[in-house]
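hey team, just a heads up i'm posting the complex here instead of the shared drive bc the drive is being weird again. everything in one block, sequence lines first with there labels, then the predicted structure for the whole assembly after. its two chains so it's a bit long, scroll down
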Amino acid sequence: MSSELQISPAIHDPQGQEKQQQAAGVGILLQIMMLVLSFVLGHVLRRHKFYYLPEASASLLIGLIVGGLANISNTETSIRTWFNFHDEFFFLFLLPPIIFQSGFSLQPKPFFSNFGAIVTFSVLGTFVASMVTGLLVYLGGLMFLMYRLPLVECLMFGSLISATDPVTVLSIFQELGSDVNLYALVFGESVLNDAMAISLYRTMSLVRSHSSGQNFFMVIVRFLETFVGSMSAGVGVGFTSALLFKYAGLDVDNLQNLECCLFVLFPYFSYMLAEGLSLSGIVSILFTGIVMKHYTYSNLSANSQRFVSAFFHLISSLAETFVFIYMGFDIAMEKHSWSHLGFIFFSILFIVIARAANVFGCGYLVNLARPAHRKIPMTHQKALWYSGLRGAMAFALALQSVHDLPEGHGQTIFTATTAIVVLTVLLIGGSTGTMLEALEVVGDSHDTSLGDGFEVVNSRYMTSYDDDEDTPSGSGFRTKLREFHKSAASFTELDKNYLTPFFTSNNGDYDDEDNIEQHHEERIPFTRRGNLNNRG
Amino acid sequence: MSSELQISPAIHDPQGQEKQQQAAGVGILLQIMMLVLSFVLGHVLRRHKFYYLPEASASLLIGLIVGGLANISNTETSIRTWFNFHDEFFFLFLLPPIIFQSGFSLQPKPFFSNFGAIVTFSVLGTFVASMVTGLLVYLGGLMFLMYRLPLVECLMFGSLISATDPVTVLSIFQELGSDVNLYALVFGESVLNDAMAISLYRTMSLVRSHSSGQNFFMVIVRFLETFVGSMSAGVGVGFTSALLFKYAGLDVDNLQNLECCLFVLFPYFSYMLAEGLSLSGIVSILFTGIVMKHYTYSNLSANSQRFVSAFFHLISSLAETFVFIYMGFDIAMEKHSWSHLGFIFFSILFIVIARAANVFGCGYLVNLARPAHRKIPMTHQKALWYSGLRGAMAFALALQSVHDLPEGHGQTIFTATTAIVVLTVLLIGGSTGTMLEALEVVGDSHDTSLGDGFEVVNSRYMTSYDDDEDTPSGSGFRTKLREFHKSAASFTELDKNYLTPFFTSNNGDYDDEDNIEQHHEERIPFTRRGNLNNRG
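-- predicted structure starts here --
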């Protein structure tokens, strides 16, 4: 990278150093131009309602094309070094804002009202998907269908490839307008399954490096340590920030800069705290995002609320676009050995199967627990199954696996993951619109009501929980599920009666909060949902 | 630095790597906590109207204290590595936002109405100050008063130490309320002299590395290349952005995120473009800031205007505070040889003399050109002379000089600069309030009129330019100065009649623009001026 003024360096080879730094400057320049191009192209395509190439796909393609051109004209190898992409940069500056924003942009109410289902899909479902993928890849290796990896590495691959990406599919959901419950399910699942996938990956990675003297019990403990520990750290930081903003009295007009400065430091604090404690920063920052949106956010002044929403949206858009460009560029530049083709092909087949096991299995369980009028319809399950494209998180974990695993293995996983990301983003991203229409889960009736729809649906849910208690339950298993269901409902009660009043300046009255939110909503066209108006 | 999940690494010494990464996480955690502490402390001090310790000084002190504690408890040297501060990070992420914001927060009107004086102080004055400092340091070395450096290195030191910092003094000016013209002079001078100081430094550095076969003429050419080239690049990017936003039609409600993403990419583009062309990115981004504020900004939608103002203010506050903390930390941690004490003492003496030569010399020239009722009063000149504290820019250039110069020399300059920064920030920063009161340039009459005052002063200037033309001029030199003065006035005309209508959606009518600005002002309590309300 270039640093100002080093361009006039000392005695030792000033020409070479100068050239190198100039090249770095040109590289960053090119990256900025690609970013600008992506934003403009994405905008033009959206304006012309061309849903076959969403913004993420456009970014990927731009990366692919520029990478391809660079590859052809690559007489000197300098172009490769322009894009000298540091892992550090990715993990410290690109990933945290993306993950925080995915937690921060969760609308708390539809999320909490579908809490049971979302947790089932993302915790149990991701576990199932990881294991199924891992085992199938292992069996595939045994049967010489694909590159052979040890079982634990297969499970690592299974975990990392089970992290789905919310970006592309959801932007199309928003453009087209879809059922609020489906939206909440897809979004909630793809956000929380990142946390699960990371925890599984780390656990498997630990099992791998201390393979002797580990028993199954220890694996479970390790997993809980990572998942619960990181979650607690994140939630703790979130609650701390809520209390700070509640009592510091910073929501006065002329202290907005101070308020915003402090607010944006908390997510990073959460990330680094978890890392310092040997936990997962990503899982921690995700939960900090959810908690800060639900509690801290409402303690801010109205101007600051508007600002921080726009701020995190901006930062994460930039980071996301950059990641997609980079992935495209990387796959075009990388010297790929074609022996990976089999691995890629069968992996795709297996993740499709594994996701079916996840969605339809968990869907069955959830439906057992839900009363008749709230069952998740098959069309929604199919949409959820179809929405499993892979993105930044899988890529990040694959990048990680190159460090964690022996030479050839990590490289194979990385190549396969990059290919899967590119293919799923282009294919699934491009066909989501068609799929949603085919499944008839998109309709004009839902269009304008996405904002207020939450409200209606939610109040229906609230009462339906009460109805549940009267309904006599069927089998013993069903009773257990219903109890879990009720505990999710009682979390909503806990939140309403204790958490919200304690951590916010709000009195915990949901209707009140809604008025405030709706009020903001009108004035925040920055938020994802703002795109809706675009169609008209 | 830590990267997520590398915490469970491979076979080779997992314990050591794990520890190292945990330490890095803890280091960043500590930095975030220091940032939070700085913001909170600064806020508390300001709220209690304790002007002897402004925010920058508070940050410096926090850095000094933590550095001192770390130094004492430094049984293992790990703490030093926690603060492993990369030059790259500084030049790529901290400096650009600070410099851009200083250009972006320039209020165009008082700046342009004092354009002649500001340019005189910052171009001619900084040149004088650099030469005087450099020559005095060289003479001091010859007379064994201080560490002896070659003449060209003395001039490099003179250049870098002539870059003054706007932050601390101006925040106090704002708190106390001062004359608008004085404010414009101090701010304009400290912003533009950074560009001049960098260009001089680079020129001297080039002279040094190609010492043979260089004549005086080539030095001038080199200087113009850097200064004019970088300025043109910056202005060019700024104008391009203005045209893009004028015609792209992005100022619709639901495209704010796109609009803001593109807007924040331009400054970085300007920075990297200049670096890629072997020019100065810092000078370029500064002028991009001035142009984008004056033209591009008014092509944005109202919401985006509010957002980008707050965004750049936030980013630069964070960067600035971090830089001051780091400087404090660095001076506490560095192993200083006490032989530098003499160098520091005499340097301070010399920069005081050099700044006097700059301010009173240029003040005399400016007053020759100005009509009687517009002369810069001696009290203002004294205030300007006093406000010359050193900050991030001098520090950055000194950091650079460690790379550019031989071992001992660069280190001496770096130590001296850090010490000068800390001393001037603490002493001048702490006493500015007292000084302003002693000079009687602070008063309640100016307090509330800072916003509207510009207007009044400006319209008076506009007419006074016309008056000038009738007044018969005195000597031939005076005539020349008046002509320069008129050219500054004609720039204002050019801007009003051609540039503003061409680059903005505005019709170039100043009154109109003012209404818009005032309108925003009411709704942007984020801006620096918003602090004013704080006093009441």
